[in-house]
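$ ./design --mode recover --in tokens.txt
reading tokens...
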């Protein structure tokens, strides 16, 4: 690793101009490949799209083989496939593992999109389409860095492209365990986080975990006349609503006892930026207390993300006998998904009213994590991103979850994890009109190529 100069900057013998020129020369072909990847609806949460994930996998394998990778294989541990490819350079050089995922979220109602979700639409500086930002642009960034070196990177490179991140990476732990020798590296570069702002890169150093459950409340064996029995017999939906209302206090703070929480952040978000990026209505106040960054990065949050009950169109004047809600709990760093779910379970069991029957069905979970890096690696990464973006990256947390990072840390505890980003706060990942800001994506491609060159020193 190169020594820092007295100002704290990293000295370098890397030919930045040459790498910039080579990276810029490959960007048009990589952008075309990204557009083709976006066209494949690789939705991991919908079984009917399993063939599409295989199609994306085949496309990515073909790109890696065209670069002359030494070894490539597609593996599975009972779930969606993952690609493991190797560019072997020199056993005395460090090994860097480049991670991204090829699966995407469902689109929601396609009619609400301003262009077809799986037809990449280039408008101004943005490329619209499902998966553009999350995370097929991450795959493309890795391809761009490798193409900049004609498939002969200056360090050993392992590429890991996963097919089930959007459903919580349920089998990734098994894949890592079964292929530990093939995936061992000194540094893992995870291109799946969010930059601080357009033109301002960020490295993510903490992530919340997530766990969910389905809660069913029952008050009747079957529906009965609301006039005959209303006011005496409680209906299940009202009972469920009262239970859900206990999850937060009057300010919107999570009211579940025992959950880990912190306000220890040195970076703050403004209310103005949150309102702009979230599209919250002008009249709606923000919830919770304490620094906004802590509320989204270091504190738990609870959301009701689904409800099963009688639709309005088919409702009648009867008391509803049962109702269900799906509750999503974001788990703060320092906690575990199992502990957080147990706290939530105890809260629900203690708060259900009127003797209603309660059934809780556990869902999937992913662990929170922190991703500190040694000073020399941070200095090297800072240099690469500063050269590419023209400004220093900022270290931030995120309220989102990337469960595979915790899996990496568990399997390879001595390795570093650099969580980088191809997306920005206005990319609308997971939402309608997801898009990628192309100038920042191009800068990430260059930064990653520079990082590989720097690590070779």
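writing sequence...
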């Amino acid at each position: 690793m190169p020594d820092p100069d007295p100002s704290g900057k990293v000295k370098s013998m890397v030919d930045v101009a040459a790498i910039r020129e080579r990276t810029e020369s490959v960007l048009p072909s990589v952008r075309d490949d990204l557009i083709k990847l976006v066209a494949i609806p690789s939705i991991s949460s919908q079984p009917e799209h399993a063939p599409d994930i295989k199609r994306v996998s085949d496309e990515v394998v073909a790109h890696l083989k065209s670069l002359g990778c030494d070894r490539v294989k597609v593996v599975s541990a009972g779930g969606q496939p993952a690609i493991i490819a190797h560019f072997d350079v020199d056993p005395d050089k460090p090994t860097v593992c480049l991670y991204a995922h090829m699966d995407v979220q469902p689109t929601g109602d396609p009619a609400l999109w301003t262009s077809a979700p799986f037809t990449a639409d280039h408008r101004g500086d943005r490329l619209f389409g499902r998966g553009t930002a999350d995370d097929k642009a991450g795959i493309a960034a890795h391809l761009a860095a490798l193409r900049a070196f004609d498939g002969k990177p200056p360090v050993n490179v392992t590429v890991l492209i996963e097919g089930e991140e959007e459903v919580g990476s349920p089998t990734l732990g098994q894949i890592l365990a079964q292929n530990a020798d093939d995936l061992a590296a000194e540094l893992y570069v995870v291109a799946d986080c969010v930059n601080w702002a357009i033109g301002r890169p960020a490295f993510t150093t903490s992530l919340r975990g997530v766990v969910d459950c389905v809660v069913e409340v029952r008050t009747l064996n079957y529906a009965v006349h609301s006039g005959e029995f209303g006011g005496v017999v409680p209906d299940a939906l009202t009972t469920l609503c009262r239970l859900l209302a206990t999850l937060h206090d009057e300010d919107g703070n999570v009211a579940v006892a025992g959950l880990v929480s912190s306000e220890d952040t040195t970076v703050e978000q403004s209310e103005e930026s949150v309102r702009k990026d979230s599209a919250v209505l002008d009249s709606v106040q923000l919830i919770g207390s304490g620094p906004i960054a802590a509320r989204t990065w270091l504190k738990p949050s609870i959301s009701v993300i689904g409800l099963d009950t009688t639709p309005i169109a088919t409702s009648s004047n009867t008391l509803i006998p049962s109702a269900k809600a799906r509750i999503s709990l974001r788990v703060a760093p320092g906690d575990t998904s199992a502990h957080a779910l147990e706290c939530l379970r105890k809260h629900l069991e203690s708060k259900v009213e009127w003797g209603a029957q309660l059934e809780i069905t556990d869902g999937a979970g992913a662990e929170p994590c922190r991703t500190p890096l040694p000073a020399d690696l941070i200095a090297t990464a800072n240099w690469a991103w500063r050269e590419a973006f023209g400004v220093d990256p900022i270290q931030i947390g995120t309220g989102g979850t990337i469960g595979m990072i915790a899996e990496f840390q568990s399997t390879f505890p001595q390795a570093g994890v650099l969580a980088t980003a191809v997306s920005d706060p206005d990319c609308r990942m997971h939402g309608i009109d997801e898009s990628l800001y192309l100038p920042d994506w191009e800068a990430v491609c260059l930064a990653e190529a520079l990082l590989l060159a720097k690590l070779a020193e």
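exit 0
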